[in-house]
Write a structure and sequence with these properties.
By secondary structure, this protein is α/β, with parallel strands linked by helices. The protein contains five helices and eight strands, in the order αββββαβαβαββα.
Amino acid sequence: MTGLVRTLARLACACACCAACARDGAPTTANASSPVVSGSTPTPNMTGRSPEGTEERHVDGSARTLVTPTPTPTSTTTTTTPAVDPRPVRIEAPADAEVATFLRAATARAKREGRAVIVEVGASWCPPCRTLKAAVANGELDDVLAGVTLVAFDADVHGERLDSLGYTSKFIPAFSVPRGDGRASEWKVDVKLPKTASSRDLARVLAPLVEAARK
């Protein structure tokens, strides 16, 4: 009986000690790690680290603030395609040009640039031809010839080679829309212009052909 009483007394003492430890918040084991408190509400952290940008506190009073790194902005490069210059371009073929080859190259380049092509056949002594050259250079035909490449040949120099490709005409300047192979298409303008023809007269003659060339 005496032994039983002693055992019950020891158990009662142990329970009292456990209750006191629980009230004081002390760890129940000597090697227990200090719990981490983030903010005002304890948050379990299985990794042992506090979320970045918060204050890390321990029960022993120590604390440190974790700074959230500022993200580096990602730069993006935008490639833009240069806009096509709408002003007309006039290319004069050299005297020794092989007409078909020259035209195929000029046409292919113009198409890549999104431009229409018109073949001009004139001569250095022709007054309307000289008016046309000056009007293009001075921007007087920018509206009617917008986005057009004029490929100019001299009838006195390239005449036979032009005839063999279908660029025949009664008057100059004469205008045609070339095909992809360099030969003349059915779209042509062959009208007699007065020596005093103005840039406005040339615009009136060229307008219908320009529409055909853009198709």
